Write the structure tokens for this entry.
Amino acid sequence: MFNVTRIEESPASLAERRSYKEEDVVKALEDAFHKKCYLCETKEPLDINVEHFIAHQGDPVLKFDWNNLYYSCARCNNIKLQYFNNLLDCCAPEQNVFRKIKLLPPRTPGAKTLVVERQNDDERTKETEKLLKKIYNSDHTINKSITGSYLRKKIHTQFRLLNKWLTIFYTEDSLEHEREDALERVKVLMSDKAQYSAFIKWCILEDTELSELLKTSID
């Protein structure tokens, strides 16, 4: 998961309580969430939902509350539905969401699962781990099994990019400027603006040398 800073002022259309899907709301969420689903981190997904962090269940206050609206892909919203209402909040910096769930990418494109491992035992972290396991590893329906496989392959593609730059960094005959450039490229992949950045950061945290060299770039 990645940290999000949203604008404090609610988009104007929410005040009228006509729709929480108006253009100003969607654009504000798109900007705040770097065009990424806040759950799976897919960037510019084909089907976007304005998702309610706490299911509104018809409650107009929750339905039109700016701070309850999140940028989600349709797949994640469909998995979450009204069942997960006590998640880690990526818009609450004090919760440090990235550090509480270890996410490691699949080692091969066809991997059946990837690592989703909570680092704390509080209830929010447990529930978030449960949801993320369903998102990344679910096979409870044939549709979710197929789309989960597609998602893991996309994450592996980003992992391959990371390995490309790490190979240059660790190769003995790489020039110093090549090694420096490789580190800068890794920083780009670790940025919250990048797709699947949490996976890349956890890979770096698992590396003794790079975790020290790049610690200022890790939340």
